[in-house]
């Protein structure tokens, strides 16, 4: 959480939470799969977290190419 951000403290229905977790799991599986489908990550990650994931993924791909 960034300084100045406010948390939303409204109740979160269980059905919505379950749907969000399932969406995250499906998108994460695509991103970590053999084709590295990262474009859907923006649906479930904040911009700063998305940037970190993309940088990490690119580093891992580069290392794989070097040591392949």
TrEMBL record:
<protein>
    <recommendedName>
        <fullName>Plastid division protein CDP1-like IMS domain-containing protein</fullName>
    </recommendedName>
</protein>
<dbReference type="InterPro" id="IPR044685">
    <property type="entry name" value="CPD1-like"/>
</dbReference>
<dbReference type="InterPro" id="IPR025344">
    <property type="entry name" value="CDP1-like_IMS"/>
</dbReference>
<dbReference type="GO" id="GO:0010020">
    <property type="term" value="P:chloroplast fission"/>
</dbReference>
<dbReference type="GO" id="GO:0009706">
    <property type="term" value="C:chloroplast inner membrane"/>
</dbReference>
<feature type="domain" description="Plastid division protein CDP1-like IMS">
    <location>
        <begin position="17"/>
        <end position="54"/>
    </location>
</feature>
<dbReference type="Pfam" id="PF13355">
    <property type="entry name" value="ARC6-like_IMS"/>
</dbReference>
């Amino acid at each position: 959480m960034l300084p100045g951000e406010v948390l939303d403290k409204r109740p979160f229905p269980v059905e919505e939470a379950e749907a969000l977790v399932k969406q995250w799991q499906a998108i994460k599986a695509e991103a970590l799969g053999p084709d590295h489908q990262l474009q859907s990550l923006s649906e479930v990650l904040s911009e700063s977290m998305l940037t970190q994931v993309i940088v990490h993924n690119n580093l891992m791909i580069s290392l794989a190419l070097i040591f392949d």
